[in-house]
Amino acid sequence: MLKREAWLLGIRGVLAIIFGVLAVIWPGVTVIALALLFGIFAIVTGVEQLVHAIRPAPGPSNPVTGFADGTGPRLARGLAGGIGVVLGVLAIMWPGITGIVLAILVGAWAVVTGLSDLWLATRQHGGWSLALIGALAIVAGLFIMVRPAAGALAIAWAIGLYAIISGVLLLVAAYQLTHQGSGRGRMAAAH
Predict the structure, then answer these.
(1) What residue ranges carry the coiled-coil annotation (predicted)?
(2) What angle do CA 104, 105, 110 make, to 5 degrees?
(3) pLDDT at residue 67, as a whole number
(4) 136 with 111: CB under 8 angstroms?
(5) Residue 126 in contact with residue 173, Cβ under 8 Å?
(6) Out of 12-16, 50-54, 119-123, 180-184, which region has the weakest mean confidence (pLDDT)?
(7) What is the pLDDT of residues 11-53, one digit of tens each?
(8) Counting runs of H as helices and runs of E as strands, what totals does the chain give?
């Protein structure tokens, strides 16, 4: 299961980096092209979040919350994933929306995804990279929402830089998860 999670994080990281590089290299792309790129990125990220939300929660229920361990993070991922997929589909269906509306959609999506990642990071040991991704997403989302009229160029650069940094951090998280899983196997073999 850890390999599958690492693989999904790795794909999400690579796609984020590709999306970010394209947004930084071609900041003058039309709003329509940016909307389509965002739509694809949001759908892929949303589906990845939904996959994590759907899988069964391991272990007994938490005595404080009454939920099975992992239920809260599953709900957060499900919400972030559902919003990502919906926003991605809307951006693809109506790519001619204005830059301001796109900026508000991107900003809101980044804040919700960031909050979800922060929540998940508090529940994982060694989740510092996920916490950093969440904090970065919230800051980028709030900046974009506060200044939606900054123009397509600034928005493209902000989105691109956010995507590149979060993509690198997702690859780090995938690497950590892979090594966390292989470390457990070595420890079990030693006993």
Answers:
(1) none
(2) 95
(3) 43
(4) no
(5) no
(6) 180-184
(7) 888 988 998 898 888 776 656 777 787 888 889 989 988 988 8
(8) 6, 0
| Band (151; pLDDT cuts 50, 70, 90) | low
CB atoms within 10 A of CB 189: 7
Cα separation, 188 vs 191, whole angstroms:
5
Report the distance separating Cα 124 and Cα 62, nearest Å. 15
Give me the helices (H) in 30-70, please. 31-54
Percent of the chain exceeding pLDDT 90 equals 7
CB 180 within 8 A of CB 5: no
Cβ pair 30, 58 in contact under 8 A: no
How does DSSP classify residue 149?
A: G
CATH 3.30.420 describes domain 2-190: no
Single pTM value for the model? 0.51
- Residue 181 pLDDT: 54
Task: Tokens for 187, please give them.
Answer: 């420890």
Nearest CA to 79 out of 106, 111, 107, 102 is that of 111
Distances (CA, A) of 3 to 45, 93, 118, 173: 18, 34, 22, 12
pLDDT number for residue 129: 81
